[in-house]
Design brief:
The chain is of the alpha/beta class. The chain contains 14 helices and 19 strands. Helix 4 crosses helix 6, helix 7 crosses helix 8 and helix 12 runs parallel beside helix 14.
């Protein structure tokens, strides 16, 4: 099944499409994966390197922090460096508190960015809020840029919260505190989006998000938000955490919403393990969308968990070898072949489910269990094609995969 067919198979909430550089967000466009750097944006070389790394991993939009004059001045140079590297991924500027000042001081930054992110909770306070918000919207209009209005429950406008609490006290049946908090978050985003429209920014240039760090709260907020607007929506569980906790919490929340057709872009906000690549969040986002059948990014490897029938390490080592190989090859394969991301592979550990699972995959291998002869049947397109034996099974099977890709998938046509 093609990636387009996968997308069409899922029912999606209707939203207004938004162009972010060459990427379309919303409407019938595929759900977009984005990520964010954690470098000092003033470090042009380091930031460009991390942006390119995230883009190679599959991030289709990359957000960078723009928090000081040096960072704003660096943005055009980062864009130029990325273009020289052949990396055309759109850059999103993340603004808090002083975005209006930075854009006024560095208009080249405003032009180089593909999208601006505004936090309505800290874009300005009191009488200054409307002026500072309006200034950023004016730059978006001047340079024809879309804007994400991203509310976060960790930085809500407290004056709005207080006003909603007063409203709640006047109700015959007051809401509980959690519902008032959700309403404050949604109202903050939607009121700001309405103000942006009043200033001339079209709905086709507005993306909205309302992020919280609790799974059930995020689901409740986005269900309500989706019912109240047709803006394109960005999904993400903010401050999701580290390792398995962050992955499980993010996929639990986003999986429910995506299944209900809610969401046009996603980010998995993982805290990286010490020394870990920032690309982990991109891989998790891709795998979430692919395992749900919403997009296809890289060949999927089905592998059994192992039990007392399997050898201790052989199938585990082979599964890792195959998974690492296809992920490493995808940047090259994506350029060379059309549709290779839909390839399915199976690495099974014994005779119980091995042959059956292998037949369901495009290519599958069923390894011997404990005490069995070191021979492994390989199935291609549902039929047994060969048997691999000996100590070099892993390399031979990878060779089978490479040969299959070259034979099955249509080479992409490239202009001279």
């Amino acid at each position: 099944m093609s990636s387009a067919s996968l997308h069409e198979a899922a029912a999606r909430r209707s939203s207004v499409p938004v162009s972010v550089g060459p990427i379309v967000v919303g409407s019938v466009a595929p759900i977009v994966v984005q990520s964010m750097t954690n470098t000092d944006t003033a470090d042009v070389v380091g930031t460009a390197r991390q942006v390119a790394e995230l883009a190679r991993a599959g991030s289709e939009l990359v957000r960078i922090t723009v928090d000081k004059p040096e960072a704003a001045a660096a943005v055009p140079r980062i864009r130029e460096r990325l273009d020289m590297m052949g990396c055309d991924v759109p850059l999103i500027g993340d603004f808090h508190y002083n975005g209006h000042q930075l854009l006024e001081r560095e208009p080249a930054c405003a032009e180089a960015l593909a999208k601006y992110r505004i936090n309505p909770g800290n874009v300005g306070f009191g009488r200054k809020k409307d002026v500072q918000f309006s200034t950023i919207i004016e730059f978006a209009l001047r340079y024809a840029k879309p804007v994400r209005i991203g509310a976060n429950w960790g930085s809500l406008d407290q004056s709005m919260v207080a006003a909603l609490m007063d409203e709640n006290h006047a109700r015959a049946v007051p809401w509980d505190a959690a519902r008032v908090g959700r309403e404050a978050l949604i109202r903050s985003a939607l009121d700001s989006a309405a103000r942006a429209e009043q200033l001339g920014l079209g709905r086709d240039r507005i993306i909205v998000s309302c992020k919280v760090s609790g799974v059930q709260e995020l689901i409740s907020v986005y269900r309500d938000l989706a019912a109240r607007c047709d803006y394109a929506l960005h999904l993400g569980l903010t401050e999701a955490g580290m390792g398995s906790k962050g992955i499980v919490a993010s996929t639990a929340a986003l999986g429910v919403l995506l299944q209900e057709g809610i969401g046009d872009t996603i980010r998995i906000s993982l805290t990286p393990e010490p020394g870990e690549s920032r690309t982990s969040e991109v891989i998790v986002a891709q795998e979430l969308l692919q395992t749900m059948g919403l997009r296809a990014f890289t060949p999927l490897v089905t592998a059994c968990p192992g039990c007392g029938r399997t050898t201790s390490t052989l199938f585990q080592e082979l599964a890792k070898t195959v998974q690492d190989h296809v992920r490493a090859k995808m940047p090259e394969w994506r350029l060379m072949y059309d549709g290779v991301e839909n390839l399915t592979l199976a690495v099974m550990g014994c005779v119980v489910n091995g042959p059956g699972e292998s037949k369901h995959a495009d290519i599958g291998i069923s390894l011997p269990g404990i005490g069995e002869a070191p021979s492994a049947p390989v199935f291609i397109d549902g039929a047994k094609a060969m048997t691999l034996r000996g100590a070099n099974i892993a390399n031979e099977f990878v060779g089978v995969v490479e040969d299959y890709v070259a034979r099955r998938y249509t080479p992409r046509m490239h202009a001279d």
